[in-house]
Specification:
The chain crosses the membrane at residues 21-38, 44-62, 69-90, 96-116, 123-141, 186-204, 234-255, 267-296, 308-326. This protein is an all-alpha fold. It has helices at residues 2-37, 41-66, 74-91, 96-118, 124-142, 173-177, 181-204, 207-217, 219-224, 229-255, 265-278, 285-299, 306-321, 325-347; strands at residues 149-151, 154-156, 165-166, 257-258. It is globular.
């Protein structure tokens, strides 16, 4: 019986790996086929937006769902990546691809500074401090009125002020594909999202990911086993920020614009709702949560003022009935089935 029970975790791990691989293949096939099947450029544009939100949610899930750090600075990190891309391309004439990479590095440095400031705190104090830092960055941008550069008769602020930046460069698909440039942009954004998703999977299943989860589940025990809490959590801040900043740079290049609206509290709450509905601490949760909420939001597009109310009620239903999210509930269901199948074998 002990031999059988000892083989169960290994079997479950292999089963989970096969499941992730199968889901990944299906997702990849559907994602690649989407721009060829869907004719509406508007819907393809919505798919691109969905990939942006999913990319941010995947990294916030890594930070909160796996490392247990409740940060409210995720959209600020995203904004630093986007603003960094825009400012480097505008002021220094960087190639858009180099600007996107450098923007991601700037977002990483910003996030690690935030980590240095708040990771000696715990729980709600981390959330409050990260929210305060995000608010300060937003206020510094929107209250910037000093003239930094004259563009014709127009004065531009260093941070772009309340209007932000625009027309600083794009992926080049408008010149290359002309009328089908949206499909070209979709392919680039999809590649960026897949890089984010695959990197997250590798980290979660590495010894580093085990350290993140150990600190999340039992800090005292993890520290007693030799895990440095501060260094480990600072590391996850940096990793999450790099890919969030990369997503911000892709966002800025796709829309050829970036402004203070990316700091919107409603957007942050939407990203968090994506992770909660899909299932925090689950790999596919943010992806499934994005699909559910984006589809729901699109179906309620003509509902006017009731659109936000409808989304709020939907999220409330998921929180009450599925507190571990859709993927978490499915995982519990599959675990129960495996345990029932294994029970007769253990009896033998």
């Amino acid at each position: 019986m002990s031999d059988t029970s000892s083989r169960l975790p290994v079997s479950a791990g292999r089963s989970a790996l096969r499941g992730d691989l199968a889901i990944g293949v299906v997702f990849l096939v559907c994602a690649i086929a989407a721009p060829f099947v869907i004719e509406s450029k508007y819907l393809i544009g919505q798919l691109i937006v969905g990939l942006f939100w999913a990319g941010i949610a995947v990294q916030w899930n890594l930070l909160f769902g796996y490392a247990g750090i409740f940060s409210l600075a995720q959209m600020a990190v995203f904004a630093v990546g986007g603003y960094g891309t825009a400012m480097l391309a505008t002021y220094l004439g960087f190639n858009i691809w180099l600007a996107i990479f450098c923007g991601a590095v700037l977002a990483t440095l910003f996030s690690m500074l935030v980590g240095l400031a708040c990771l000696r705190l715990q729980g709600v104090y981390v959330a409050l401090l990260t929210f305060a830092i995000s608010s300060v960055v937003y206020l510094l941008i929107v209250t910037d009125t000093a003239c930094f550069q004259m563009i014709g008769t127009t004065c531009r602020q260093f941070t772009g002020g309340a209007s932000g930046f625009s027309r600083f460069g794009d992926f080049g698909m408008r010149q290359l594909l002309r009328g089908d440039w949206v499909r070209g942009n979709y392919g680039i954004v999809l590649a960026g999202f897949l890089l984010t998703l695959i990197s997250s999977w590798v980290i979660i299943h590495s010894p580093m990911g085990l350290a993140f989860k150990a600190l999340r589940d039992n800090q005292s025990y993890a520290i007693a086993r030799g895990i440095n809490r501060f260094h480990t959590q600072l590391l996850v801040f940096g990793i999450s920020a790099f890919f969030t900043g990369l997503t911000g740079g892709l966002y800025a290049a796709h829309f050829q614009a970036i402004g203070p609206s990316v700091f919107s509290m409603s957007t942050l709450l939407f990203i968090m709702a994506i992770a909660v509905v899909g299932g925090t601490g689950t790999f596919w949760g943010p992806v499934l949560g994005t699909i559910v909420l984006m589809v729901a939001d699109e179906l309620m597009r003509d509902a006017g003022q009731f659109r936000t109310l409808g989304l709020g009620l939907l999220i409330a239903v998921f929180v009450v009935l599925l507190p571990r999210g859709i993927v978490g509930r499915l995982s519990d269901f599959l675990t129960t089935i495996r345990a029932r199948r294994a029970a007769p074998q253990q009896g033998d």
